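Dear colleagues,

As part of the handover before I leave the project, I'm documenting each prediction I ran so the next person doesn't have to rerun anything. This entry is a single chain, and its sequence is reproduced below.
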Amino acid sequence: LARLAQRMEREDVPAGAPVVTEGENGDRFYVVLNGMFTVSQQGAGAQGILRPGDYFGEVALAMNMPRTASVRALTPATVASCDRETFDEFVRPLFAED
């Protein structure tokens, strides 16, 4: 975890700002450090709320596909993110089936 944390980047996100947009290519994995985010999908509307400790962006990276949802900050917020290489090394193994 310490090695993963060293390779993650911290980013402040203003209220109302998008972090990822459905359909775009995914190149980062995110963990919510503080604040709240809304998750939505075209045609389906709001799908949920993300809070500190939640994460997003793993589907696009794990399945090598475009973003499946949009995530926008509801409040001023902070995320930590990593690139695909770091995700593949440290996070992807957590999603692998035994």
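The chain has a mean pLDDT of 92. The chain has three helices and eight strands.

All the best with the project,
I.
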